[in-house]
Design brief:
The complex is a heterodimer of chains A (309) and B (360).
Chain A lengths: L2 H30 L7 H19 L2 H25 L4 H20 L22 H7 L3 H19 L1 H11 L1 H6 L4 H27 L11 H11 L4 H24 L8 H22 L19
Helix pairs in contact in A: 1-5, 1-6, 1-9, 1-10, 1-11, 2-3, 2-4, 2-9, 2-10, 3-4, 3-9, 6-7, 6-11, 10-11, 10-12, 11-12
Chain B lengths: L1 E6 L5 H25 L4 H14 L4 H23 L7 H18 L8 H27 L3 H21 L34 H18 L1 H11 L1 H6 L4 H28 L10 H11 L4 H24 L5 H17 L1 H4 E6 L2 H6 L1
Antiparallel strand pairs in B: 1-2
Classes of the chains: A mainly alpha (309), B mainly alpha (360).
Chain lengths: 309, 360
């Protein structure tokens, strides 16, 4: 195969992976703090419509990203209040947040369907990206580099800083963390808000990087794939990077098969469309065969915290 | 004035039943305020969504038809959630149930016979069970999270519909539309009240809820589900295998979702179309919670959610409220319900400041 094609595929894969990676990084931090927020899909949709609206009216993609993150953060506060302040069931509340996000984004976006926005431009001058190899390195918009940066930053935060240690302690043993004076609920609120902002930012990437318009449910289950990826990555940031790129590849395989011709292009398009979801199931299965999937899970994941004193 | 939560000695039964009602009322009040703030006729929206479907007798048949699948799926989910098995892929099991029924209808197309409809229903139930068996198998054998697998399979099942109605099952006389041919008379669900759209699925939903109520409250099966969910330790001690319970919970909820799917395709739809994924599988999650995971509660919860669906359509035509508003009202209801749950185990006490307390 031609090198140019491989490089072109690589560029597409990187673009398709970024929203999943950003959302999954947020969820990873949330889960490390012991909270299971299944509302990622809903927060992404809210971020997507917020980002779209701001991009549509201002044309400033950075403001649009910021709006997406802010909207995701606000949505996560609903989840935080219910599960952390009122100890509501985390699974059910996350589902409720997804149902809410789907409805909210559809309502807010009702008058914007089929209206185009401009895609976000690459961060570096276009001259650097003229050569195919240059394009693989310099050809992307800001969120792609930001996602890379966040992989490293979150790894560093979790494993090399005191705050990260506290966060992990809260996720592993909330009662002990509480008894030595850390605010379990406070730490979890911050984690949930961070996760919300990341999911919102990830959502905003859909109209800004992938399809320059608003469509109902445009995240199409990517938020759920992000949640699955956190399990796949056994709660480790660098594995998350690998996992997200693997999924980006699965998602863009259709284009690649159509371009390459041969027997692959005979596969019905519906099967290609179903592939990312089936791959998620297969990946979860493979992980579990290799070892018990839950060994690395934060011990307090999904359990409400009630101080025992 | 400050409040403090104080643990109750035992869960409040009053709050258990009062909080769903409070959630619906709060949704109406807060919904009216929010929709007014964002520029809609908020009070009108609440009136049209929650009251018009009840006050207008012409809407009652729509209510019954919409409530039936929600109740059937909701009953199945309530059994699973009771056992702490989080099947959230009911939408996918509903779709596969509908597809299995469609398959039988297409194979028997042009035939007549009383057996066609029962065969379709059996196929639908089997389809839903089979699709739920995948997450059950993965959960029990490999401990793969059933939430993620059942949901991923839902997304895959939607693509399966698109494939089948675009290629092998496409209506040869359909002028290129991606849909199957209209089912023969023998494969359509009969109406039970002449002159209305109320089909056989409606009485089936009521019977299903009553049977489930009996089974859950009066039999060992129901006891097993409730004990495993509420006290897994005790359940193990009592000899109830967790694996078997997960299987039962998934298969029962899958069977109900599949039943709802086949009743929908043979009733309101009468052919498989791209619009078949109706979100009933997801809305039924709210129904199950609103019904407090009890089959009789689900019966009521199904009616309440059906009201919002029918009312949402009313509000769309009368005051131009976007259809998505229904989803927001439904999600708000669930938020308020989950928020209110704390009142079952805790009571709200006014905190009297120290100085004031001493003076008194």
């Amino acid at each position: 195969m031609e090198l140019t094609l491989v490089l072109a595929i690589l560029v597409t894969v990187v673009g398709a992976s970024t929203p999943i990676l950003l959302a999954a990084l947020g969820e990873l931090v949330v889960e490390r703090a012991g909270v299971l927020n299944l509302g990622v899909e809903g927060m992404m949709l809210i971020g997507a419509i917020a980002g779209f609206v701001v991009q549509f009216h201002t044309g400033n993609p950075y403001l649009a990203l910021l709006a997406g993150a802010a909207a995701g953060l606000c949505a996560s506060l609903i989840f935080g209040f219910l599960t952390l302040s009122l100890s509501a069931n985390q699974t059910a509340t996350g589902l409720a947040l997804t149902i809410f996000g789907t409805g909210f984004s559809a309502l807010a976006g009702a008058s914007y369907s089929a209206r185009p926005v401009t895609l976000m431009q690459p961060l570096f001058p276009l001259e650097l990206a003229t050569h195919p190899v240059g394009k693989v390195i310099f050809g992307y918009a800001f969120p792609i580099y930001f996602a890379f940066f966040m992989v490293v930053a979150i790894w560093y935060f979790l494993h090399r800083t005191r705050a990260g240690l506290i966060l992990r302690a809260v996720g592993e043993n909330d009662q002990s963390a509480h008894s030595i004076g850390y605010s379990v609920i406070g730490v979890r609120y911050l984690a949930v808000m961070f996760g919300g902002a990341m999911a919102g930012l990830a959502g905003a990437c859909f109209p800004l990087l992938l399809t320059p318009q608003w469509a109902e449910r445009m995240t199409a289950g990517r938020g759920w794939i992000a949640v699955a990826l956190v399990v796949f990555a056994s709660w480790k940031p660098f594995r998350l990077l690998a996992g997200a790129y693997l999924f980006g590849l699965v998602m863009t395989m259709e284009l690649y098969a159509k371009a390459g011709g041969g027997p692959l292009s005979a596969i019905p398009s519906e099967l290609w469309a179903a592939l990312p979801y089936l791959a998620t199931v297969i990946v979860l299965v493979l992980i579990s065969i290799r070892r018990d999937a839950t060994t690395n899970a934060p011990a307090c994941l999904g359990k409400p915290f009630l101080p025992s004193n | 004035m400050q409040f403090r939560l104080e643990k109750r000695r035992e869960p409040s039964r009053f709050m258990l039943y009062a909080t769903p009602i409070a959630a619906v009322v709060l949704t109406m009040v807060i919904g009216a305020i929010i929709f007014s703030l964002i520029g809609f006729n908020g009070i009108g929206a609440v009136r049209e969504i929650f009251l018009t479907p009840l006050t207008n007798p012409y809407k009652w048949q729509d209510l019954a038809v919409k409530a039936a699948p929600l109740i059937i799926i909701g009953v199945g989910l309530s059994v699973a959630y009771r056992a702490n098995v989080w099947n959230i892929g009911a939408e996918g099991q509903y779709i596969i149930g509908g597809l299995a029924g469609t398959w039988v209808a297409l194979l028997t197309w042009g035939m007549t016979g009383w057996w066609i409809l029962p065969l379709m229903i059996l196929a639908g139930i089997a389809g839903g069970m089979l699709y739920a068996a995948i997450p059950a198998l993965l959960k029990t054998r490999l401990n793969v999270n059933e939430i993620l697998t059942s949901l991923m399979l839902t997304y895959a099942s939607v693509q399966l519909i698109y494939y089948l109605i675009r290629a092998p099952w496409k209506d040869p006389m359909g002028m290129g539309f991606p849909q199957t041919r209209l089912f023969s008379e023998a494969a359509r669900l009969p109406t039970v009240i002449p002159g209305t759209i109320v089909h056989l699925g409606v009485p089936i939903a009521i019977v299903v809820a009553l049977i489930a109520w009996f089974v859950m409250t009066k039999t060992v099966f129901g006891y097993r589900m409730r004990v495993v969910g509420a006290a897994p330790q005790a359940a193990r001690y009592g000899g109830f295998s967790e694996t078997k319970t997960i299987w039962l919970a998934m298969l029962v909820s899958g069977a109900f979702a599949g039943l709802a799917g086949v009743l929908e395709v043979a009733g309101p739809f009468q052919r498989m179309v791209p619009g078949f994924p109706t979100n009933y599988g997801f809305t039924a999650i709210i129904v199950a919670f609103l019904g407090r995971l009890s089959p009789l509660g689900v019966l009521l919860g199904g009616v309440v959610l059906a009201i919002t669906f029918v009312g949402g359509e009313v509000a769309q035509t009368t005051i131009g409220l976007p259809n998505a508003a229904t989803g927001i009202f439904q999600a708000m209801m669930l938020f308020f319900l989950l928020a209110g749950d704390i009142l079952i185990k805790y009571r709200l006490r006014r905190v009297v400041p120290q100085a004031e307390a001493r003076a008194a």
